[in-house]
Amino acid sequence: MADIDRTNPELQTLKLNKESGYNFRKRRQDDWLENYTLSRDKLTINRLTQRQSVNLPLMKTVIKTILKDVDDLPVIYFENLDNDKQAQMFKNEYWKLVGDDNRFELQDIVDKRQIIMFGRSFDQWQIVDGKCQMTIQDPQDILVSRYTDPTNIHSSRFLIHTNIYKSLAEIEKDPLYDKKEVKKLKEWFKSEMGLIKSAENQTMQTEKNKKLAEMGLDDVEDPVLGETIVELSMHFIYREEDDKEEELYMYVEAEDMVILSKKPLEEVLGTTKDNYWRNHFNYNSWADDLERQDFWSDGICDLVRTPNKVLNSWFSQLVENRTLRNFGMHYFDSTIEGFMPSTFQPIPWGWYGVPGKPQDVLQKVDIPDLSESLDEMNYVTEMVEKASGATSTQQGVQTERQITLGEVELALGEAKERIKGMSKFYTQVWKERAKTFLKLIEGSSDKIDAVKIYKEGRNTDEIYSREVNPNDWMTPAGYRVKIWSQDERDAKNSEELQKLNAVKLNMPDNPKLAEIYNRKLLEFVDLPPDDINAVMEFEDQKREMLLSNPMMGVNPEQQGQPEQPPPQALQLAPNQVQR
Fold this sequence. Notes:
Elements: H1 9-25, H2 29-39, H3 58-69, E1 75-80, H4 85-101, H5 104-118, E2 121-128, E3 131-137, E4 142-144, E5 158-167, H6 168-173, H7 179-188, H8 192-214, E6 229-239, E7 247-254, E8 258-264, H9 265-269, E9 283-286, H10 300-327, E10 330-332, H11 358-361, E11 362-364, H12 373-388, H13 405-420, H14 423-443, E12 451-456, E13 463-468, E14 479-484, H15 486-506, H16 511-524, H17 529-548, H18 567-571
Antiparallel strand pairs: 1-14, 2-3, 2-9, 4-5, 5-6, 6-7, 7-8, 10-11, 12-13
Helix pairs in contact: 2-10, 3-10, 10-12, 15-16
């Protein structure tokens, strides 16, 4: 059997980083597990506080309520800095295809759910089979340095992606791995310890896949029986080699024993003009409760966990209390010979003989009623609603207290504003994801397959197709990312339209103002940029025709009459928006 060198200095560095990252994160492990099990209606029975297997779905209710009111996926548009509109169109169409292939809408929900439950979420970008792939990763699989800036994951000195399970057969076929190290690993798994570790890995992978499936991912597979399962970790660390400037390296390590691969990250993901991959991970992360001192911040479910456990305990006691009271338990005088009330058969209108006065030989077990605890449970529930912003009104529950419709709308609006405050955080991370996408394309354009796009022709309903590849949209100056939250964009556009409408009332004949106003209206109804440009071009052509022939479009009865402002300008008040 080939010897495995466990004293390799590089391997020791990787193990120390992994231990340091795990120790930094492990204080959150128990909290995450409780949050998850409570949301999945799973709990642990004990003899003191949780004697009954009952769970109030408070955690699930809060998660569902907040997800319902969180804003949709942000709008992302790439603007070409060389003013090449065709390249810009190709780029944005390719982004749409990447979004469809990676199911951005569904992954966005999983992403936000992890923020609510764990307080942190991560994504990973890579090129797989000629396509850009973005995956929302489990925060329990990621380790970072304890000195990481919570607002910038790229400030970490290392990032480790753990719990990657592959079969030994897959590893042997992968051309990126060192064949000598793979051979050592294969020999070790033939040993008794290797067989035990393979069985443990198979169990861990099964449990991990089940959890991911419950979290919303339906494309995971159980390990094939009989396969040797190996646990891999990807390490991204800074190092210097051959007197070169420090840069990020990617290591693939197996079972804390062998290093299967070691390359500069820039060599893996490709070189960009600004050498982006020398000091940036192909991962992004965000949180909505940032703290300067702690990267692993709290999630909303951390506020719910303890009250949920208290309610479960009280409800368990209430269920047991009701059950015991329903049993009708009694004491009896066991010294009376031949008196065995336990043999009595309960029947309707039954008569049972006892030796003497019943109150002298029998006594009911007194079990006090605990129904008054319902008021306390309601108090705890209301406290959770106030803390999380997931109020009963948002859940569609009518309140018993008599309040006006205006008060209901005000309270509901305030609660929604608290929840939508999350948008500023995930809008920023989606901007970073778009930038990661740009750099991935720039560095690995030769690894990306051509795709076919379909587009409706201008001034026609016919659909045209064209096959494009990165060379069709790559330009010298590149692109910049324009991003906006759906809610923020609607609110901003509504306010701008109100102001523009007020100005337009005083300057009804200003063509430039009319052009700005019309473009804002088209953006407000969510028309795509290409359609907006087509509509505005038609308006320009129509205006030029009217200027060249002033008599066109004029009603003979109106000739000689003073020009009137547009009807819509007269009908709209300054605080109204034309839709």
